[in-house]
Amino acid sequence: MFERNRIDSRPEPASVPVEIDLQLGGEIKGRLRVPSGIAPLDALNSDGGFIEFEPYGGETRFIAKSTISSLRLVGVPRAPHLAARASSGDDFDPHFILGVSTESTWNEIRQAYVQLTKTYHPDRFAGTLLPNEVGTYLETMARRINAAYAALESTQRTTRSVRAEQSPAVYTSRPRA
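The structure assignment produced for this chain is given below.
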């Protein structure tokens, strides 16, 4: 009934958007399903005569590797675009980086920080083979987000310490005679 000793720890295959030209003519567009951590080129050059393909709006099927004339990766941003976006905004504005207004409460700032950290953390895509440019972009964005939060957090701590110094004492002892 159930196989208790069976361990199914295979990672979920990654979907890579591609355009495939076939030997007999014609072009198909969709997602190439490759094992996580394996480049599409390595998957095509591996043993086995078929590769898993999911056309847009269709069901997954297997295509014989021998019928593929050429394959183009689709939607992979180029390095200059990513580098320009990561380094844009040389004037450091922590509120802009975190996507909050200057009148935001500390809880709103914290929520924005947590959300962006989850989105851009490089370890989030550790099981997926990404181009080097994308990995560099994720690392740069994570550093910028952490720096912005640290700048706002230090301002928050300074504000708290100033308030603590200005507030009246809660208890004062009587002078000794």
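Interim note for the steering committee: The chain has two domains: 14-73, 79-166. Residues 132-166 form the longest helix (35 residues).
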